[in-house]
Amino acid sequence: MASEDEINLLVIVVDVNPIWWGQQAQRETELTLSKCLDAVMVLGNAHISMARTNRLAVIASHCQDSHFLYPKKSWRAGDSGGDDACSSGDGKYELLAVANNLIAEEIRNVMSKAEVKGNSTDTFLAGSLAKPLYFTGQVIKAAEDCALQYMNFMNVIFAAQKQNILIDACVLDSESGLLQQACDITGGLYLKIPQKVALAQYLLWVFLSDSEQRSQLVLPPPAHVDYRAACFCHRNLIEIGYVCSVCLSIFCNFSPICTTCETAFKIQLPQMIKPKKKKLKQPT
Amino acid sequence: MDEEPERAKRWEGGYERTWEVLKEDESGSLKATVEEILFQSKRKRVIESHGQVRLGMMRHLHVVIDCSRSMEDQDLKPNRLTSTLKLLETFVDEYFDQNPISQLGLITTKNKRAEKLTDLAGNPKKHAAALKKAVDTVCLGEPSIYNSLNLAIQTLKHMPGHTSREILIILSSLTTCDPANICELIKTLKSLKVRVSVIGLSAEVRVCTVLTRETGGSYHVILDESHFKELLMLHVKPPPASSSSECSLIRMGFPQHTIASLTDQDAKPSFSMSHLDSSSAPGLSLGGYFCPQCHAKYTELPVECKVCGLTLVSAPHLARSFHHLFPLQAFIESPVEEFQEDRFCQACQGELKDKSIFTCPSCRSVFCVECDLFIHDLLHCCPCCIHSQSAP
């Protein structure tokens, strides 16, 4: 049981890439964005109900931006009683009602304002993970990784590891190597959901418990993480490679010049054996 | 030997009127000045950054700990030795965090001799364990700088040219007992391109000044325990590489981590090569890292394979060092009154209550003091700049 003063903050990052969700809606109608958000709200409400001092924040991660769905900026400045929130008539805990309403309203704002640029299905997780880095973070991810963000992503993961923040990932569609590494390095859980319809169940079962309770539960086994590096020239995954000592870029073949930092390397040549001069015997 | 003019000693300079720094406000309280001083000290660390300088990323560092009689002095609580060892434990953790592919070795010196505490290795646990055990050592005699440097050189001179060779001496005694002329040794150090730095616990000693000046290191004397910690942490960052260090391509292996369980059919328990010579019972384990060249098993990375000599690392280890190569620029400080718009920090969504705000030069987003420190110390990338990168 957590002590009285500890504030346990859970941050849920939801990937709301409109292109992927649009394609998803065409593929199968069982899991839509609104159902996904319902499941997220269930998890959020459950977390708040677990202890008096638990707090919640929800962030939507989009193509070009990430946006705090809950709590709102101006809400922080004022006091934390929901004065202008409508009190729901069914006796629900006020905080939960406020949270749900705010999330629903904000997501509508975000979706209506968003401009769709291009056809990419990548989302900027690095940005959205960077923001709430004093908290425990969870990521619900739909679209694929973007290789551009690798360095920023790794920076974020190492910062989280230093601060003892757990990153859990719940992946809906395609496996994500970056998120697997993030979960492995920080000590969180990575799960690819076999049945998308049961999202709420998976969220509650696997991700609701905090780090101390997890040792008591039987949870899905850790995924096999591929830690091989990708070479800078072909982006293949390699097992043995050459690393430049100046800029740490990885190459699959030996080359005399590093393409990233343009240093010329010394090539180890075999030692030249000087031909011995034979003294000619003077004919006497 | 000293052609360079030495900087003026403190007592030779003008009279420092330290009381003038403190100014009282109308009600007679010093709170504002104290806050200002704390604020400045926080910012000081962020401002110093290297820029586009080539850094020595693979480091071989020997730390020489003085265990002579003067270490029993109690001016650092509980005594100098305990305090030093505790700070060194933090140093070892930070060092391997910032320089994952580097190696560290520990040497102690007392009674006119020098002894190796741990060999040069890349595993922080061994060093931490050795430091914990060393708390019980008896401090006696005089240290010997010559012998400890000699001992360190014997391993460092075999290291490849592209790595940086460093020695850090923590010296508390004011004397040293050397069997031979230390000036000759200084010449040898220079020719081997070893950089020696000293942290003094008592006072400035001339031989250390010369030693560090000739080899290109730094010499500091501590004021108190927090200053000691600061000086130690200065050595965690990779130093600028000397122009004569060679650059080469190092062959490294990136092993896969296999996690097998008893239910797998092919799982065979095996010994880990790193535990073969340890005295605790070597355990059979199912999973681990297998060297891509010779398939020897190891439980932890980074490690050098004992069978085939290949350095084994994982990609995140190299990624940890990237932020040294691409450092984040310092943010522009400006007073908060000039800021017209909504007073919210972009990172933590909190109100901007401090005296000044920080703006990122590329994306012009605004951060508060705490977030600025967090971004520069820990995160190394601006959270809003990441968003402005356009998708391909």
TrEMBL record, chain A:
A GO molecular-function annotation: zinc ion binding
- Which superkingdom is the protein from? Eukaryota
What are the entry keywords? DNA damage, DNA repair, Metal-binding, Nucleus, Transcription, Transcription regulation, Zinc, Zinc-finger
Please provide one cellular component term from the Gene Ontology annotations of this protein: transcription factor TFIIH core complex
Q: Name one GO biological process term.
A: nucleotide-excision repair
Query: According to its UniProt record, where is this protein located?
Result: Nucleus
Q: Which family does it belong to?
A: Belongs to the TFB4 family.
Instruction: Please give the function described in this protein's UniProt entry.
Output: Component of the general transcription and DNA repair factor IIH (TFIIH) core complex, which is involved in general and transcription-coupled nucleotide excision repair (NER) of damaged DNA and, when complexed to CAK, in RNA transcription by RNA polymerase II. In NER, TFIIH acts by opening DNA around the lesion to allow the excision of the damaged oligonucleotide and its replacement by a new DNA fragment. In transcription, TFIIH has an essential role in transcription initiation.
Q: How does it assemble?
A: Part of a TFIID-containing RNA polymerase II pre-initiation complex that is composed of TBP and at least GTF2A1, GTF2A2, GTF2E1, GTF2E2, GTF2F1, GTF2H2, GTF2H3, GTF2H4, GTF2H5, GTF2B, TCEA1, ERCC2, ERCC3, TAF1, TAF2, TAF3, TAF4, TAF5, TAF6, TAF7, TAF8, TAF9, TAF10, TAF11, TAF12 and TAF13. Component of the 7-subunit TFIIH core complex composed of XPB/ERCC3, XPD/ERCC2, GTF2H1, GTF2H2, GTF2H3, GTF2H4 and GTF2H5, which is active in NER.
Q: What is this protein called?
A: General transcription factor IIH subunit 3
**Lineage of origin:** Eukaryota, Metazoa, Chordata, Craniata, Vertebrata
Identify the gene encoding this protein: gtf2h3
Automatic annotation (TrEMBL), chain B:
Query: From which domain of life does this come?
Result: Eukaryota
ZnF bounds (C4-type) = 291-308
Q: Which UniProt keywords apply?
A: DNA damage, DNA repair, Metal-binding, Nucleus, Transcription, Transcription regulation, Zinc, Zinc-finger
- Location of this chain's protein in the cell: Nucleus
One molecular function GO term is: zinc ion binding
Q: Which Gene Ontology CC terms are recorded?
A: transcription factor TFIIH core complex; transcription factor TFIIH holo complex
GO process annotations (BP): DNA-templated transcription; nucleotide-excision repair; regulation of transcription by RNA polymerase II
Q: Where is the VWFA domain?
A: 60-202
Q: Known InterPro entries for this protein?
A: C1-like_sf, Ssl1-like, TFIIH_C1-like_dom, TFIIH_SSL1/p44, VWF_A, vWFA_dom_sf, Znf_C2H2_type, Znf_RING/FYVE/PHD
Q: What is its main location?
A: nucleus
Q: Which residues form a coiled coil?
A: none
**Which protein family is it in?**
Belongs to the GTF2H2 family.
Q: What is this protein called?
A: General transcription factor IIH subunit
Gene source species:
Sander lucioperca
